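Section 5.1 Outputs to date
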Amino acid sequence: MRAQFVLSEIGVGLRRNLTMTFAVIVSVALSLALFGGALLMSQQVNTMKDFWYDKVNVSIFLCNKNDATTSRSCAKGAVTDQQKHQIKADLEKMDVVETVHHESAEQAYKLYKKQYGDTGIAATITPDQMQESYRVKLKDPEKYQVVASAFAQRDGVHQVRDQRDILENLFSLMNGMRIAALCVMGLMLVIAMMLIVNTVRVSAFSRRRETGIMRLVGASSFYIQMPFIMEAAFAGLLGGAVACGFLLLGRYFLIDNGLALAEKMQLVNFIGWDAVLTKLPLVLAIGLLMPALAASIALRKYLKV
């Protein structure tokens, strides 16, 4: 009987404040969708880092004849055969090094022409202007500084470059987008909380006669407040369900179909469906608990029992 009464009161409250309940559902849905999207974007960045950092190399560029006159690090002249052999031997002795690949100036020139052959500057580049290099694959990409400190000041070495630097701008952009999404999510959560508080206050005011009678007949505070709390929780749960739908549709249309990024950007390791599905229970839990907590706090002020 009590459960039936509570459920009937929830239905009455939702019907009386239908417009504000709808606003709560929409605001909770948008804020939680942004929250889930920020979590997925963070996981996407980490996945891309793990994928690409495992494939990038440390490049040790060697001095050529042109560098001897233009670069301070190559002031002693172009790299000699003895220096090249010694650099390779020292690299192969290092515990952090997995493989060492030598790229000649001719190979570098062919690769450059293949990548930039259509540009105007490519016609002015000659093979003797290209630098020889050693492409070093590390067992742990984070150990770049070990190689850099050992070879940066070597005779015949022009510079040591970590190819991860090329990716850092992309990762910084994605992290910036994630932070922006979190900021908007925070604003939407504040708006949702204010709507919940106002909805509960209006609902409590419209049913002040019923709650007064319940108080006179000895109903407990928890029993009187429960319908209001469950109304907010139900609206929040609906908002969480809508947010889950947004996340699933976003994954489907952005990566699998629609934009089909997985097909167009095959070099990018996108997160799978399992990453999305594991976030849905968290989104639903927040959608259920956050409005219930906001309602219980609001009732202490607006429902004196």
